[in-house]
Design brief:
The chain is an alpha/beta fold. The protein is built from seven helices and eight strands; from the N terminus they run E-H-E-H-E-H-E-H-E-H-E-H-H-E-E. The chain is 41% helix and 18% strand. It has an eight-stranded mixed beta sheet, sandwiched between helices. Strand 1, helix 1 and strand 2 form a beta-alpha-beta unit.
Length: 263
């Protein structure tokens, strides 16, 4: 199997939650590989700063400010992209939300925001990307940044509905794959499921309990760039190969890269 990013050079990608962590690393990696990347996040000033730092790369990074819990702002991001850069060829649904609290004592609005960002926003963005790809006969790629928590409930106190939202992403990935097959579409879909990653949701979080921090600090951990490399890998596969699920775990926890490839 020959891996190449050449067919994506000059094409448009949208990455949600691109202001920091995994989303930032993915956006940067795609720019390095020649894509025109729209980073969508509330803290767009962080994306604008990185856009300047990446100005000498093959591709280009653009910032679009949006709250992913609002459908109208997601739609605006797609419209701006279409009007200013062209048709989207790659969508990376990376935005995620987690607030530490117990399921038995938690706040309903916090849970609702988790589902709005982790599930509903992913569905809305996917719908808009697929509509554009099908209308313009684009053999695009949808990448969902999932989690090992979408395949097993990790024993980490205070995770409340997070694992439930990620199990939903696992189901939605397979649902989309089946729908696209039924439609005869050549659009690919991939779920990328990392283990523990250094980010503002994990060891860099400022508002987590000492117990939760200690559990995470005692475990093997990945860097955001490891996940970005995984995304580049799945995008590099030939058009007839679909990596449906890519699980990335740090050495010492389990197998580092386990991929299930469907053709």
């Amino acid at each position: 199997m020959v891996l190449s990013m050449d067919r994506w050079v000059g094409k448009v990608a949208i990455v949600t939650g691109a202001s920091s962590g995994i989303g930032a690393a993915i956006a940067d990696a795609l720019v390095e590989n020649g894509l025109l990347v729209v980073g969508v996040a509330r803290r767009n000033e962080l994306i604008e700063k990185r856009a300047k730092e990446l100005s000498d790369k093959k591709g280009k990074l653009y910032a679009f400010k949006a709250d992913l819990s609002r459908e109208d702002e997601i739609l605006s991001a797609f419209k701006w992209t279409e009007d200013n850069l062209g048709h989207v060829h790659v969508l990376v649904n990376n935005a995620a939300f987690l607030s530490e609290e117990l399921l038995t004592e938690g706040n309903t609005e916090t849970w609702r925001r988790g589902f709005d960002i982790n599930v509903i926003a992913l569905c809305v963005a996917t719908r808009e990307a697929v509509k554009i790809m099908r209308k313009n006969d684009i053999k695009g790629h949808i990448v969902h940044i999932n989690s090992i928590s979408g395949h097993e409930v990790v024993a980490l106190p205070g995770s409340n509905v997070y694992s439930a939202t990620k199990f939903a992403v696992t189901a939605l990935t397979e649902t989309l794959r089946q729908e696209l097959n039924t439609l005869g579409s050549k659009i690919k879909v991939t779920s990328v499921s990392p283990g523990l990653v250094v980010s503002e949701m994990t060891v860099l979080a400022k508002d987590i309990s000492d117990e939760r921090r200690k559990i995470m600090e005692d475990r093997p951990i990945l860097q955001a760039e490891d996940i970005a490399d995984g995304v580049v890998y799945v995008l590099s596969t030939p058009e007839h190969v679909q990596v449906h699920e890519l699980t990335i775990k740090p050495v010492g926890e389990s197998t580092s890269f386990v991929s299930q490839i469907n053709t």
